[in-house]
Amino acid sequence: MPDMQTYDFIIVGAGSAGCVVAERLSASGRHSVLVLEAGGTDRRFFVQMPLGYGKCFFDPAVNWNYKTEPDPGLAGNADHWPRGKLLGGSSSINAMVWIRGHPADYDAWAAQGNPGWSWSDVLPAFKAIEDNAAGADRWRGTGGPLHVTNCEDQVHPLTRRYLQSAQQAGLPLNPDFNGATQEGVGVYQISTKDGRRMSAARAFLRPAMKRKNVRVETGALATRLLFEGTRVVGVEYEQRGKRCTARAGKEIILSGGSINSPQLLQLSGVGPAEHLRGLGIEIVQASENVGRNLQDHIGINYTFKGRQPTLNQLLRPWWGKLWVGLQYVLLRSGPLSLSMNNAGGFFRTGTGQERPNMQLYFQAFSTVIPKAGERPILTPDPWPGFSIGLSNCRPSSRGEIMIRSADPLVYPKIVANALSTEADVAEMLDAVKFVRRIAAQPAMKDFIVEEILPGPAVTSDAALIADFRKRSGTVYHPVSTCRMGPDAASAVVDARLRVHGVGGLRVIDASVFPDNISGNTNAPSIMTGWKGAAMVLEDWA
Ligand SMILES: Cc1cc2nc3c(=O)[nH]c(=O)nc-3n(C[C@H](O)[C@H](O)[C@H](O)COP(=O)(O)OP(=O)(O)OC[C@H]3O[C@@H](n4cnc5c(N)ncnc54)[C@H](O)[C@@H]3O)c2cc1C
To answer: In sequence order, what are the beta bridge partners of 213?
Structure first.
């Protein structure tokens, strides 16, 4: 290791993408790598245990706990935006559903002037990343660093009814959403191994930390980039109340995620000039798109009361908690070893859609009524509840993230603008009607006592819209705030993820997606880390 404060590469953020970049850049042993992570260790019980999800959802020890501005599209609600603040980033607190997106999503990325990002370019990366328990084929990989579990034989029995009723509603059964086709219903594969969460930290960073050329600093919040002219040469960070600096001989890579990467750029004078000047920040490179083009998936649950026990009857009583706890601790199996989303699917709301524009989620439990004084989503309801949820795939609403102050400790302003276009509202209306259609099929109908949320009184279009504005919210997939594109006037980074107009600096995380993908964003973020690191290595070969 050279001088402790000078490294070839400095990576800001050990999240889904950052962990991969750290592993890839350090693999040859030829480059020294410093990783700065604002949060702490991922060696925590409720991080490692898959259904510990609910415990991490609001926990400031592992979560940034962002809040959006009150959103007119969500009936004025200020939405809760959890983001992981620990090794592994959001992959250490997410719901572990392993979805790549639709091939056409990536072809659309490439068609926007981003060579290297078409489906045929990214498929080899997805395959190389993965160690899929279901085996390898034309689409799936084995032997990669990240294990993907096939949950077919472990999900709650009620899942079968959901799959049957969705088929009765017209969707095909799909054995693999990451395989030949995306459309249909099926059981989700999840990123776990032997009943423990398979975060990017576990798959990539922990093995890399054994190398002599990797140094990981936790509790290290990057506060400002240091420039010589328009070239980035170092980074300032705060750790345990002390201000520190580190220099990069080759490059600095921002992997802070869709909220923090644009925030750090703006704090450092790279961003919308007028806004930054108004906060007294000196402009290094005016770049109007830093923080803009924010895209996110919005979701809602329809919750039902069933005739027979669901997971609620196992997860709520003390004896049930003891039972599943023992099952988990002794055997690493049972409900605690799985995602809350047992199954799901993809469908089109209209025949005019060329590919699915909606995603489904099935949960064999419900958490409608929080216990007094307790955060939501922790306590299962006392009756046999379950939910069918959905989220949009490629909404047209756009928001933005802008710093409020030159102080790096002040959270940026998040304007989500959810459901702010007519098209997004119209497709959501069609989609919630389809959820009811699934619930009305023979396989499900006789099992259901009543619809709890929104409830049978909500039937007119106006009432359904008012309900989903009131009850829906992020499904935690914000992207595109440092979007990739050939033109500095409409993008922040180029197709090799270099920041337009700035030397020695790349952004590699979900913020560079040119547009959101149709599905969950962890696997695509990890793929972006893998492809981005390959580009860095090629450019320094
Ligand atoms: C509650 C939740 C559930 C989700 N469920 C799923 C799911 O089931 N399936 C799925 O595919 N996706 C899911 N996602 C989304 C997915 O996890 C994210 O899209 C993905 O992890 C984003 O990766 P990233 O690398 O862009 O950022 P992150 O993984 O968020 O990493 C950013 C890292 O940078 C660190 N950082 C930020 N700023 C600084 C700074 N200034 N200095 C130092 N460090 C900094 C952060 O602490 C964090 O560790 C979920 C997300 C959440 C929050």
So the answer is: none
Q: What is the dihedral of CA 233, 239, 243, 244, to 10 degrees?
A: -40
pLDDT 10s digits, 182-208: 999 999 999 999 999 999 999 999 999
* Atom 52, ligand 1: residue with shortest CA distance: 94
Residue 247: count of CB within 10 angstroms of its CB: 15
| For range 334-353, the mean pLDDT | 94
How many whole angstroms separate alpha carbon 499 and alpha carbon 311?
48
Ligand 1 centroid – CA 82 distance (Å): 9
Q: How far apart are CA 379 and CA 126, in angstroms?
A: 36
Q: How far apart are CA 509 and CA 506, in angstroms?
A: 10
Check pLDDT > 70 for residue 4. no
pTM: 0.98
Does the structure show a pLDDT above 90 at 100?
yes
Distances (CA, A) of 139 to 128, 184, 345, 425: 10, 17, 18, 34
Active site residues: 477
How far apart CA 428 and CA 298 sit, in angstroms, is: 9
